[in-house]
């Protein structure tokens, strides 16, 4: 299942965007339906959050694997989203269900995300590759190292 890339206009965006790619693996697929419910709720929150430039979700419930891809105007906007309910409360609820979680962050020019030639598939491929190259539990939004 995939919710395609949804672009959100942010006229005040600066020259660089922060992109976050994440992957969550559940301890058991039995929690997948509940996890998906939370994921959908958080996807809706993301779309209304200040500083969001775009967001997408990929879920493989039968495998217990969930991925997110989002772009933000800056780190402050991303951190604010992460600390705000329902996201903050959901993390406490779903954390015990996860076997691993991996987060990767990098910068891209905002113009690449808004150009007519923008390819969400290419951004997804980049995000999946970065997550695959990382160690599981490779940082949280507040602590993860930034990549070039």
Structural summary, described in words:
The chain is α+β, with helices and mostly antiparallel strands and 148 residues long. The protein has a single domain, classed as Alpha-Beta Plaits. Helix content is 36%, strand content 31%. The protein has helices at residues 32-48, 75-83, 87-94, 110-114, 120-133, and strands spanning 2-7, 16-26, 52-60, 65-72, 98-109. Strands 1-3-4-2-5 form a five-stranded antiparallel sheet, with helices on both faces. A hairpin with a 4-residue loop joins β3 and β4. The protein starts with a strand and ends in a 15-residue tail after the last helix. Mean pLDDT is 90; it is low at 139-148.
Judged by helices, strands and strand pairing, the structural class is: alpha+beta
> Which percent bin holds the helix content?
25-40%
The coarse silhouette is: globular
Give me the CATH architecture, please.
Answer: 2-Layer Sandwich
- Total helical elements: 5
Q: For the record, what CATH class applies?
A: Alpha Beta
| Whole-number mean pLDDT | 90
Strand content: 25-35%
Largest sheet strand order: 1-3-4-2-5
> Cα-atom Rg, whole angstroms?
14 Å
Total number of β-strand segments? 5
* Major β-sheet annotation: 5 strands, antiparallel
**H and E order:** EEHEEHHEHH
CATH topology title: Alpha-Beta Plaits
What is the terminal separation in angstroms? 30 Å
Can you tell me the residue ranges where pLDDT is under 50 for at least 5 consecutive residues? 139-148
Number of domains: 1
């Amino acid at each position: 299942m995939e919710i395609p890339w949804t672009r959100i206009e942010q006229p005040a965006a600066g020259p660089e965007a922060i992109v976050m790619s994440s992957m969550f693996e559940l301890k058991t697929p039995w929690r997948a339906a509940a996890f998906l419910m939370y994921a959908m709720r958080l996807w809706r929150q993301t779309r209304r959050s200040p500083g969001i430039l775009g967001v997408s979700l990929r879920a493989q419930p039968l495998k217990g694997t969930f991925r997110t891809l989002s772009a933000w105007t800056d780190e402050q906007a991303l951190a604010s989203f992460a600390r705000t309910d329902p996201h903050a409360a959901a993390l406490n609820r779903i954390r015990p269900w996860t076997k691993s979680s991996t987060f990767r962050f990098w910068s891209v020019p905002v113009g690449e995300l808004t150009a007519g030639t923008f390819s969400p598939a290419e951004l997804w491929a980049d995000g999946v590759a970065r997550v695959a190259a990382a160690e599981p539990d490779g940082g949280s939004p507040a602590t993860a190292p930034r990549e070039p």
